[in-house]
Structure formats: structure tokens, C-alpha cells
């Protein structure tokens, strides 16, 4: 399991999408919430894993539309567990929400380097 704090951890992927993982870990209660965002900051999906002293309480994957409305939920909920997935979500930390995706990396291959030095040659 990832090391968790209430503040959470944000991972930015090469395509600019982000994964925000947060939750808590107490001796008798563990909750891990993983939220996935598109490069433009739109919430795409979330996964909630929650267990208590009596065992698993929730193990649910949810997808959202462009307006943030729940579209689909799959997984396990213990009897009587009615907490909505959206109630467990947190906003991205402000610094991460404002960050722009990194520019694509330049091609540093040998062939590209030689093209820059010698130019593109035409073959007849």
C-alpha cells in the first residue's frame, strides 16, 4: 500500500494526466482514495478502498462525466454502506490544479542530431 497522509500524493504522468491518492490509516480503519484526472484537469474516475475492524467496507471504482456527475459505479459495498463516492473525494491541491502539463520532450536521437547538423539530404 502506498504511504498515505491526509494531504495526499499527486503523480503527474507523461501525457499531463494526474493521479491523486489520499486517505488515512488507523489501526482499525484504512481508507485509500485514488482520483484520476485528464490533462485538462477534468475528473475521470475514482477508486475507493475502505476497510474497518470488521473487514472490507467498500471497494468501488467510479467513472464521471465532464460535469463531474457519477456515471457508473462497480465493486463491493458492505451492507448498509451508503456513503457516496463523491463525498470521499478531495479537490486537487491548489499547486497541482494550476500546474500546466510539461511540454513534450525533444527528440534527442542520433538521427535527429545529424539532421540538425547536416540538414535533410535529398536522394534522386
UniProtKB/TrEMBL annotation:
UniProt feature, compositional bias: Basic and acidic residues: 1-16, 105-124
Start and end residues of each stretch annotated as Disordered: 1-27, 97-124
Protein name, per record: Uncharacterized protein
Organism annotation: Deinococcus xinjiangensis
